[in-house]
Amino acid sequence: MSSRRRTTIAGSLVTASFSAVLILSTAAGADEGPGSSKGGKAVDEAPAGVKLTTLLPEQISVDNSSEKTDLTATVKNEGTKDSGKIRLLVVGFDGLTVNDVQGCSSIAKSDLPEGSNSGFACLIDNLAAGKSKSYAVDATFDLKKTGKICLPVQTGDGKKTYWQQGPVPFGTTNPSPNAPVTPLLLGTDNQPVGPGGEKEELPKTGPDRDVLPLGAAGAALLTAGAAGLWWSTRRPRVS
After folding, report:
1. 132-166 pLDDT, tens digit each
2. CA distances (Å), 1 to each of 8, 9, 12, 13, in order?
């Protein structure tokens, strides 16, 4: 084989390998997709020039055998001035349990709001204007239940809540019990699957959601989210 041909083949292999790396790198983070502030709302007024928001992934994937999942929780300062000391809380409800948040401390069980099963507090000395900080969240999701997550952003002492995303659901209306993983979408109520692979009907405690007008549905969502405003008047202890 001529040296010219060997050079051509080697160049092709390098190109192919580089392309494969690019594909793998893209696929590794494909589950989460873009971040979204869906279900978020301002609560207490922030200092002038400070605008705090949060982001959750549009999509996560749950391993159907282990029920494990992971996601990224992000807090942003979209204002023109530094935030000063703040904290981000990451709290799980119903079928979604937060097992760990990298670099954060667990909230004592006695200080969790009704309906919550787990929570972590992430202390931030300062978030500069235009900057963001992201945390890796390790969680489990019981696909036989619905599941929600909540991200309040508070003052360092917890006396005020500047912003709160949720409790917002992750879920799917098209369960896939026989697949290795189940993709869940942010802002979607989970439709649990029974032992035989059939969809389970959730107990209904109020009006049929399918016939709720949009305005009433929005009001119902805000009412459900009000449970999370519990942090505005009570400071959770961390362990």
Report:
1. 999 999 999 999 999 999 999 999 999 999 999 99
2. 11, 11, 16, 16
